[in-house]
Amino acid sequence: MLLDRAEAVLRERGIDALSLRELAREAGVSHGAPRSHFIDRSALLDALAERGFVRLGDEIREAAASEPDDYARALRAAASAYVRFAVREPALLDLMFAAKVDAPSEAVRSAAERLFATMTGIMSAGAGAGAYDTGDVGRLTLLLAATVQGISALVTSRRITMPQGEALIDDAITRFLVGPSAGR
Amino acid sequence: MLLDRAEAVLRERGIDALSLRELAREAGVSHGAPRSHFIDRSALLDALAERGFVRLGDEIREAAASEPDDYARALRAAASAYVRFAVREPALLDLMFAAKVDAPSEAVRSAAERLFATMTGIMSAGAGAGAYDTGDVGRLTLLLAATVQGISALVTSRRITMPQGEALIDDAITRFLVGPSAGR
DNA sequence: CCGCAGACTAGACACTGTCTAGTATCTAGT
DNA sequence: ACTAGATACTAGACAGTGTCTAGTCTGCGG
Fold it and tell me: Mean pLDDT over residues A114-122, rounded?
């Protein structure tokens, strides 16, 4: 698939090296061929971002499911999976959270929303048992999302190392849980 | 100055619209002229990022200084200033925390470090008076940095609105302070 | 069997970053 | 005062890019 190849280039050589013409050359088709699939270069990027949101959602859901009977561990696993995704696909994550001049496309927006819904689901599992000190799970999830996204940004922009990022996740999750002994 | 004009284009039309040749045209010089100042397009972007770190540091320092005798309010003011900077200069913040394939230049790295030092200074003011529940101010500052960066990313990528971002800052700062009544 | 939509080709256009050789100007250093 | 060198610039070239257009081929539903 064209998108698979584009994703690989994005991962290996960054967004600046991602060229429609080069993708066409690699695929052995003419330079205009990709236009049948993506009207624009930005349409290609949107499709990549959309897939990124889906994949990231899958990965954190799976990570959380690996710890079914411990909220704290499930939360840590999900957050850790998020940062590991960021390290594996730094340029893709940049693309997903890029500050574009015009509003994101409908497809990207809804994919991002589904990721957030996945995170909310993970948080809710603990909320029912009173693991957090507030009833507003949505707002708390937003804060968690911002925190893991920020940690990921610090790691991918090489401001901190991956182990430091993992330590920050630990600190953050601990703060999310009610009581000083929770999850420790 | 060339950088001022570049910053304006970045702010108004995004990074994709930032072209060396167009800058040269606007300045009324030949298309090769900018090369005397910046060897590369990426050198221009690095210079912009560096200036961004300096300006952001100035703004949060000033915000914190406006509340000299209340840690909680100073912290909130600084975090709020960070997010306001992000809203005002979304493309610039993207540039500052972009996940590039090769390591950031020395100048950018040290500018980022100075920003972090500024944040540490703001946090330390409260730490001396036991406002936080841990002695490791550096690690706590890192977590704060990640949190405000993450909130900014959510706002600039239009996942949440600015008021939601402000609310998240409130939630985050409250969690950073020791005791349930702290700063509220 | 027809018509048509979708994937593709091939050429053109305007634009970009980058490299080069050459020029003017200004600034030490002797 | 003269020279050497650095600095800012011009002008031309090159390869590469995204995008648009007109035309071709092919498979499929009516």
Answer: 97
* Residue to test with chain A: of B96, B142, B162, B166, most A Cβ within 10 A: B142
> Environment class of residue A182 by beta-carbon count within 10 Å: exposed (0-12), middle (13-18) or buried (19+)?
middle
A 10 A CB-CB count for A87 gives 14
Contacts of A41 (CB under 8 A, 6+ apart): A20
Cβ separation of A90 and B99 shorter than 8 Å?
yes
User: What residues have CB less than 8 Å from A181, skipping those under 6 apart?
Assistant: none
Mean pLDDT by 10 residues, chain B (184 residues): 96 97 97 96 98 98 95 95 98 97 94 98 81 81 98 98 97 79 42
| Residue contact A94–B94, C-beta within 8 A | yes
Measured between CA atoms, how close is A32 to chain B, in angstroms? 22
Residue A142's H or E segment, with its range, is helix A137-156
CA dihedral B129, B133, B135, B137 (to 10 degrees): -80
Report how far residue A150's alpha carbon sits from residue B15's, in angstroms, rounded to the nearest whole number: 21
CA distance A138 to A121: 10
Residue in chain A closest to B151 (alpha carbons) equals A146
Q: Give this prediction's pTM.
A: 0.94
- Which chain A residue has the Cα nearest residue B139? A168
Distance CA A143, CA A176 (A): 9
Categorise residue A80: left if φ over 0, alpha if ψ from -120 to 50, beta otherwise.
alpha
CA dist A29 and A48 (Å) reads: 21
